[in-house]
Design brief:
With 171 residues, the protein is an alpha+beta fold. The protein has one domain (5-167): Aminopeptidase (3-Layer(aba) Sandwich). It is built from five helices and seven strands. It has helices at residues 5-11, 25-35, 42-51, 105-119, 134-142, and strands at 15-19, 57-61, 65-77, 85-96, 124-130, 146-151, 161-167. Helix 4 links the parallel strand 4 (85-96) and strand 5 (124-130). The chain is globular and about 45 Å long. Residues 1-10 have low confidence and may be disordered. Bound molecules: coenzyme A (COA).
Length: 171
């Protein structure tokens, strides 16, 4: 029996994660435009890369770059421990092309970024996500991120964001 289309997609896309390099820029910009309403200039992507290259990671299949995650490290009030300052990883953007979703790539990208951020000395990690983005919220909750607060009108179109955060342990 032949696999159905969904199964075939899953079978044909083995992938590996590797660090972003500047030659990936156009592929990453394309994924970002396809997947998210928040689009950035090439300069912005490169600035995020330079600020924390080890936590800018791509997922590559034999055919193409299928997903990416990019992060910064910031210093500010802790989202997980009250009245404390902390070195915090910030997941700026993560996306997987629609045809490569539900194969574990998104989760692997986030896991790899969390390891890289912890290795960079981050004590916790946070991100903003549209409150209506059920797939992404479910992914983060599954990874034990918690909703720290809701930021109303966070996005240009007026949509609200959850700020979600997770404690990191030093490697
Ligand atoms: C969110 C996103 C990165 C997930 O990528 P992915 O490779 O499909 O994720 P995974 O296959 O690793 O899924 C991990 C978990 O996420 C959740 N999830 C992902 N897609 C889902 C969907 N369509 N419906 C319900 N849950 C979903 C599930 O809990 C899933 O675990 P499970 O497969 O064991 O049920 C992807 O959907 C995407 O690029 N979305 C558009 C961009 C975006 O929203 N980025 C996040 C902005 S903060």
């Amino acid at each position: 029996m032949y696999p159905d289309t969904e199964s075939a997609k899953m079978l044909e896309a083995p992938h590996l994660l590797r660090p972003f390099n500047p030659q990936d820029l156009s592929a990453v910009i394309e994924i970002n435009r396809v997947c998210l309403p928040e689009n950035y200039s090439p300069y912005f992507f490169m600035e995020v890369f330079k600020s924390c290259p080890e936590a800018f990671i791509v997922a590559e299949t034999s055919a193409k770059v299928a997903g990416y995650i990019m992060c910064r490290v910031e210093f500010g009030f802790s989202d997980t421990r009250r009245f404390r300052m902390a070195r915090k990883g910030h997941i700026v953007s993560v996306a997987v092309l629609p045809e490569y979703r539900r194969q574990g790539i998104g989760r692997e990208l986030v896991e790899a970024a969390l390891r890289a951020l912890a290795g960079n000395g981050a004590e916790e990690c946070f991100l903003e996500v549209r409150t209506v983005n059920e797939e992404a919220v479910r992914l983060y909750k599954q990874m034990t991120f918690e909703i720290t607060r809701t930021i109303t009108h966070y996005y240009h179109d007026g949509a609200d964001a959850y700020l979600m955060s997770i404690k990191l342990t030093r490697p």
